[in-house]
Amino acid sequence: SQKQAEKAVHQKKERSKTKCRKARRRHINLVAEFNHRQRKNIWLETHIWHAKRFHMVKKWGYCLGNSPTEKSYRACYRAMTKHCLLQDLSYYCCLELRGEENELLKQLARICNIDTGLTFQEPCFLSGRFEGSLNLYRADRYPEDMLGPVTFIWKPRDGSENRQLWIWVHPALKQDILRELKAIFQCSEPEEICITEPVTTSIQEDKQVEVVISLGNKRKKEDKEGEKAVPVKKIIGDGTRGPFQSYSWIAPTTGITISDRSMEVLRYRLIGPLSHSVLTDTLKAASVQTV
């Protein structure tokens, strides 16, 4: 019929405007598309790998692999017992505390208790050699009003009284724990609010962006159907914090600083007898020069 013929012609015109697969798969277009697709739910660094092999779910502001699409349970069990299995735990939120050691320990003692296990002030944890875990409570409310479990690790001492502490929390608990930390340290938002817009992280990357843009414009002249190139930018932030929210707070009296390092510090878990071998083969120790 005439309507079907007109519809076929219309579809043909629409199809002609669609770029070929090679153009759609150009690196700069892919990055721009990926950034657009993760505005609501942040992707982990390993998202593409998981998306091809797992059923993905949207939880806590992230897009996470939930269950494998094929039967890999035996392979995972074999890797855990005989080889090495790697898990991406980067969706866990990292809260960084900086300041004088005594002041940090004094206030942190209010949200934990020795009855539940070893706390922040245990010497083996203070040295930075081991990671600790404990349950946090609202200030001076133990054994009531538990906030939830966390893990933590101190940066090894460098001779200064100022220390650095990383606390890892589940994204579902982050807002409550961050609010309690800001309260006990009396931290307020800094005068200059830092806006975490998606930006490139180095001058070298800026130069690479300019080169890609120029190539994209050149291709556009050759291919009229091509779209204008978009600069390659990185998403900074995480699923629990908006792109225009503050991520650092300071206490005016003590100088204690709380920073939200979520998705800035990645976290992986290695399970299995060959985990240490994998790390030694992958990482190389830096040569430390002492003056």
Automatic annotation (TrEMBL):
InterPro entries: Pop1, Pop1_N. Residues 4-99 form the Pop1 N-terminal domain. One of its GO terms (biological process) is tRNA 5'-leader removal. GO terms for cellular component: nucleolar ribonuclease P complex; ribonuclease MRP complex. PANTHER family: RIBONUCLEASES P/MRP PROTEIN SUBUNIT POP1 (PTHR22731), RIBONUCLEASES P_MRP PROTEIN SUBUNIT POP1 (PTHR22731:SF3). This is POP1 protein. It comes from Zosterops hypoxanthus.
